[in-house]
């Protein structure tokens, strides 16, 4: 096995896309400012109200004090409304930014590396988790402000009466302990809860995708049990979280009234001794309540803990390894010679592909065959650099693929897949979408070459029919994927089982049209049918991730093992297998 000395550049984490650095500090700062101002108004109120009461009790003119009390009350209401408004904006901004970073990372990531994340899991991360994560900056600002009220209340209390302040201060450590225990215990439960939530979403999505299979097999009840199986664990975890929350609230629910009662008692004694006025007692009771309000931080603390876990989960998608591109370009008018040298692909510590010294001649068609799991799709992905090999190098016209710019790579290498994803635009837009603009004429030509023109004409608005409202069969949809690849064909076209849903006659027609009317170039075709292998100039035969042979189909057909690949037994036929178009063989 030859391995390259200069390893190709490894994957690296995707950089953040432009414009998704988040809404910055401003929205959270606004939340902080408004809530601190509201807290300040709340703290000032008892002092002003107490003083107003004393003035009124004395029967004199209270002057501007009643108006000041009313203004403070109004101001607090207004500031609370502004806090709610800015909290919503801040949360929405951060949610959008976190979601878009994760989404960008997901789209940039090497597709093969995103495989462990099921669609349901990704859906949960991008929706529920992103929303929880987006709430953290506003919750953090609100938490900071929520500490201003008790702290301000304590200072004001000390200003009114030191004895009552000392009494409240003595009770606060117990409340702080309750909060600490809550934050610590909640963290673990929240992480597990989010994991199980994602598990249920994944299973549900799988079941929806396989609805036809489930209906046909009559396994609906079993599937329902499977989807809902993690529900019991979710219930336990949810119960545990609520119990923690409830316990924290219950403890602070006992502590807070006790603290207020103690403060009132001390204030009463001070009133009796003449050290406090009635207005002062009113202020003291209110301040004791505000100071003990530190317990309300438990809810905010819970949101922050939950949001931080959710952020980690969501942004794990941003950190998916992405391909790094070079600055190289391909020599103009190269024939499209592809070469794989010392290529090794490892997954989970296992070698799943090893290809060394294999050349795919330019301008010819090479089929890749092998049993299921032999490594055909991986070879196709490595050949067109959807995945970098862990070792070795792939060269197109003598240039390493990982040294090419993204543009050079994607305009010269086109892919067609078994199950293309074409988006929600019109048929024509779907075919035209790609690394470069293509003319409407080229789109029409590609649609014809893919054998799709007849059914596209029958659509309600022809090629202008939006895909979601186009009643297409699997094979028809597949042909639109082929048309897109044909429209953007460069010097290398990789077709990974891209004609699997076509009947043999249509497949043959598509092959003829491909040779006649699509830009000539190198074709690498993953094939399951002998007819496709027969039409190719050469065949790469893979077995257990290794190349067993590279030769024309007619030569390989002499081997029983090769014939067995296609379910053909018996002795080798004297003539080639499958329909051979003119000029298809060298
Ligand atoms: N991301 C991955 N993680 C783990 N194993 C992987 C990954 N990608 C591919 N493999 C493994 O590599 C082997 C080759 O996979 P590949 O999809 O290339 O097979 P294939 O020949 O195209 O099969 P089929 O004809 O069934 O599509 C399989 O054993 C597969 O499980």
UniProtKB/TrEMBL annotation:
Q: Name one GO molecular function term.
A: ATP binding
InterPro entries documented for this protein: AAA+_ATPase, ABC1_TM_dom, ABC1_TM_sf, ABC_transporter-like_ATP-bd, P-loop_NTPase, Type_1_exporter
Membrane topology summary: Multi-pass membrane protein
**In the UniProt record, does the keyword Membrane occur?**
yes
One Pfam family from the UniProt entry?
Answer: ABC_membrane
Which residue windows are transmembrane per the record?
A: 153-179, 248-267, 287-305
Keywords linked to the UniProt accession: ATP-binding, Membrane, Nucleotide-binding, Transmembrane, Transmembrane helix
Location in the cell = Cell membrane
Query: What segment(s) does the record annotate as region Disordered?
Result: 1-21
Q: Which residues form the ABC transporter domain?
A: 338-569
Q: Principal place where this protein is found?
A: membrane
Q: Where is the composition biased (Basic residues)?
A: 1-12
Q: Where is the ABC transmembrane type-1 domain?
A: 29-306
Top-rank taxon of the source lineage equals Bacteria
Which chain positions lie within coiled-coil regions? Answer: none
Q: What is this protein called?
A: ABC transporter ATP-binding protein
**Which organism was this protein described from?**
Streptomyces prasinosporus
